[in-house]
Amino acid sequence: MRLSLMKKTNIYLLLVTLLFTLSCQNNDLKVITVLGEIPASEMGITLTHEHVLVDFAMIDSITPNRYNKDSVIMKVLPYFEELKPFKVATFVDCTPEFMGKDPQLLAELSRKTGINILTNTGWYAADNQRHIPHEINDMSAEDIAKIWIEEAKNGIGNTGIKPGFIKIGINDSQLTEADKKLVAAACLTHLETGLTIMSHTGRASAALAQLQILKQYGVDPSAFIWAHAMVESSKDNILAISQMGCWVAFDGIHEEMVTIIRFTDLLHFMKSTRQLNHVLLSHDAGWYQPGKPNGGEIRPYTALFNFLIPYVMSEGFTQKDIDQIIIKNPAEAFAVRVRKTVK
Fold first, then answer.
1. Residue 136 neighbours by CB under 8 Å, 6+ apart
2. Which of 17, 234, 313, 326 is the most buried (most CB within 10 A)?
């Protein structure tokens, strides 16, 4: 039976409306920088795991008085300027609370360079819990999440600057009770705010333990970034976790050839298994360190562009492959939205 012209028109209009709605939803995805929200599509080339400043002092000794902001900016600014020829548009700063996180410093650096910078909420329990509040043993995951959600909704401290993701750090072996609380708190915060969870992890066993907690809270693995995944020796384990939908971050790029070869091997493996759409690349570089003369030695943020990308392209990678990893994947990974497990 032939459809009437009116029915055909109605179906056509319905399809157009549906496509327009889906397009708008995609365009509405945002990321949160230290200077405010931007469309995820405007992140551009992104370094997904770097540091401007890190203070390794015990939590009781951490204070902004340990450094001068102007001195930090003066020291770090040239390293940001080195990124401009490579058209880097976004820089994800992964320094957590109680380790020198300074949203106002990052905001000033963003204004001076024109580079988008993301900061975070969350706590870091690795390094024998030297950098988390002593009260954590008396706190529940809900208590911790309440603090992080407050930062996400109203800003960090009195700065008005909101976090763009959740950063936690856990021990690279069996999860402690504190680790489990942080992962649970991250899940609760994600479900309330839509912020992506990035976890300082390392080996696959610890990543899987965290993903099990995500499952308990109904958080999809696509909301989770497995930081330092290149530490895992088994590529099959990396593949299995990537296939679950988790973001796999190879974030220790150095200019040494042994590192370039190692990362190239990992990227070839991820491409051959059709998992490049789950890979994030960065240096875990920087950083100004309070307590050291003139902030110590800073490792540049450019080895990805000067060494790794040219090498992998000489090995058969295309510009499309590179754009997938350093442009499309970060925009997808850090876009703010609640990602629940599909039942």
1. 123, 125, 129, 144, 178, 181
2. 326
pTM for this model (two decimals)? 0.90
Number of structural domains the chain divides into: 1
Q: Indicate the DSSP class of residue 186.
A: H
Strand partners, 38: 31
Give yes or no for a contact between 50 and 282, defined as CB atoms under 8 angstroms apart. yes
The count of C-alpha atoms lying within 13 angstroms of the C-alpha of 224, restricted to the half-sphere facing its C-beta, is 34
Q: Which tens digits make up the pLDDT trace of 84-134?
A: 999 999 999 999 999 999 999 999 999 999 999 999 999 988 877 778 888
Q: How far, in Å, CA of 295 to CA of 288, rounded?
A: 5
The C-alpha atoms of residue 169 and residue 201 are separated, in whole angstroms, by: 7
Contacts of 322 (CB under 8 A, 6+ apart): 309, 312, 313
> What span, in angstroms and rounded, lies between the C-alpha atoms of 75 and 127?
27
Asked whether residue 230 is assigned to any structural domain, the reply reads: yes
Q: What Å distances lie between residue 43 and 47, 51, 327, CA to CA?
A: 10, 18, 7
